[in-house]
Amino acid sequence: MSFWPVRLRPLAWLRSLHAKLFVLLGLVTSVLTVAVAYSIVRNSRRELETYSRNLVIEAAGTVETDIIERDPTFKDPDKLDQLLSSIAGPDRSIFQIDVFRRVGRGNEVDLVRSSGEESTVDWGPEIGSYLTLPKAQAELVDLNTGRQAWKVYLPIRPHKPGQPPIGLIRAYCDLERWEVVWDNNLKRTLRTLPGVLLGEFILLWLILRVLISDPIEGLVLTMQRLEQGESSARAPVRRSDELGLIAARFNDMAAQIQRAGEDREALIREIRGLNANLQDRIDAALSELQAKNDELAALVERNALLREELGTQERLAVAGQLTATFAHEVGTPLNLVTGHLQLLESQKDLPDKTRERLGVIGGQIQRVGDIVRRLLDLTRRPQLHKKPLLFESLLGDLEQLWSPTLAAHGVTVTALAPPDCCLDVDRKQMEQLFINLMNNAVDAMPEGGQVELKAQPAEESTPGGLWWELHFHDSGQGIPAELLGQVFRPMFTTKPEGKGTGLGLSICREIVRNHGGEIRIESTEGKGTCVVFTLPGALV
User: Fold this and answer.
1) CB–CB of 18/209 below 8 Å?
2) Does the pLDDT value for residue 471 go beyond 90?
3) pLDDT band at residue 424, thresholds of 50, 70 and 90?
């Protein structure tokens, strides 16, 4: 048996299986030991009582035998005194023996001799009833001194069968001496019981340590070594019981794990060798697959854009039909009104005031006609008349167009563009594009603000194809993120009712796309909006 290093971890020990079994078995052995000790003490008392009872019965039997053999007629009481004094006395356990003889043929008796003072002997006629006893009778009685004693009655029977008893013997055995012996035994038991229990606890602790804790601790340490990567760790097997069987099975499992690990490492090395060239082919296939996926994603995106474009074109077609119908219905009455107005103006006798009013009416009718023609222009796909156009020249013309509006709303414009920025565009459509963007910016800045225009070469520019990227940024209210995907849809507007048709940005996108460019909007609510679009460039 090995001795273990002392580890003072009482709380951890109390949670262990060793502690639980120790406490359980300790309680069981303690209860059993105390029960056995109690049983031994109790049985010793019974044995002492039985021994004292048998002792007084044997003493009475000795007296009976002596009387039958030596003086059955009670003629020599002195010899009887010698016998009684040799057996009983105040300093002995059998402290008194009384001998009675039978008087007549009835059950009356008379005292013959007593080992004690005869004057103090307690007897009466009722004692004669004990002559009919078949054998000795013993009973526990309480003495006047408060002690207990055995009182035995034994009829004196002749050896000849069929003859009645010739007398009666009454003997007393004091239990005080035996009580002293029993008390000494009890005290000795109580003194030795703690030592016995302590020895049992120590022996039980050692047995549990050797039989249970050490094997379990060995298994745990072996498991920890396996967890740390020591595949050759094995639990010591020195027993053939259940724990030994567990250790053996654990070692078998560890050996299987070790073999499986070795086989796995060999398989991994083999796979790595086989996949040395396969990995490159897999990477190439994955790259090709990724390219196909990207191409497919682009096609899906293009398909979505085409569906959106188709929806837009359908909405524009409906709007165009409505606009054409409106223009036709309005244009005919306008032509009639214009003809009658010209007839009135051709009269020479009209007052100057009336002629002046007719001129105002004619101007307004001309204005309505211009509006109708512009509406018709919106429904037709315009013909592009692309020419090289310097950006500075375009800005100069635009400033003359929108300067009154900007001044009235407190909006300032700053432009940053290279001097060689030249666009290959349709001038009229460019004016419509920038005017629509400026109108949106002014509406987004009711308290005034600033518009920044910036032009720079686009990333997709090549020596054979020059493109310019233009930024139109305002400091207005911005567009909510959830509405950014809808701003280019026809008839969609974020402006209050009565302040927008929802066609401005849709027309801008059509103009940019007709020129081969792209347009997008970047906006943060509360921080303004930036419209970014590309246009083809031209060499100066």
Assistant:
1) yes
2) yes
3) very high
The set of residues, in sequence order, having a beta carbon less than 8 Å from that of 412 and lying 6+ positions away, is 406, 449, 450, 451
Q: How far apart are CA 20 and CA 70, in angstroms?
A: 73
Between 3-17, 200-214, 423-437, the lowest mean confidence (pLDDT) is in 3-17
- Paired residues of 174 in beta bridges: 149
- Residue partners of 537: CB distance under 8 A and separation at least 6: 421, 422, 423, 424, 457, 461, 466, 467, 468
Burial of 231 (C-beta count, 10 Å sphere; 0-12/13-18/19+): middle
Report whether 138 contacts 56 (CB < 8 A): yes
> Which amino acid does the sequence have at 243?
L
Strand duo 137-142 + 386-390: pairing: unpaired
Say if residues 183 and 20 touch (Cβ distance below 8 Å): no
- What three-state secondary structure class fits 164? coil
Structure tokens at 404: 């009154």
Q: Which pLDDT score is estimated for 531?
A: 93
For residue 179, the SS3 value is helix
pTM: 0.38
Q: Residue 376: what pLDDT?
A: 66
- DSSP secondary-structure letter at 175? S
User: Residue 49 phi/psi, 5° resolution?
Assistant: -65, -45
d(CA 195, CA 193): 5
Contact 245/277 with Cβ under 8 angstroms?
no
Amino acid letter, 485:
G
The H or E element that residue 425 is part of is strand 422-426
Cα–Cα distance measured from residue 520 to residue 512, given in angstroms and rounded to the nearest whole number? 10
* Sheet of 411-416, strands arranged across: 411-416, 449-457, 467-474, 529-536, 519-523
CA distance linking residue 148 with residue 198, whole number of Å: 38
Per-residue confidence band for 5, with pLDDT thresholds at 50, 70 and 90: very low
Nearest-10 crossing angle of helices 427-444, 391-409 = 30
Higher-scoring residue by pLDDT: 496, 534: 534
pLDDT at 488: 78
Residue 27 is predicted with a pLDDT of: 86
Q: At what angle do helices 352-379 and 242-345 cross, to 10 degrees?
A: 150
Encoded amino acid at 421, one letter: C
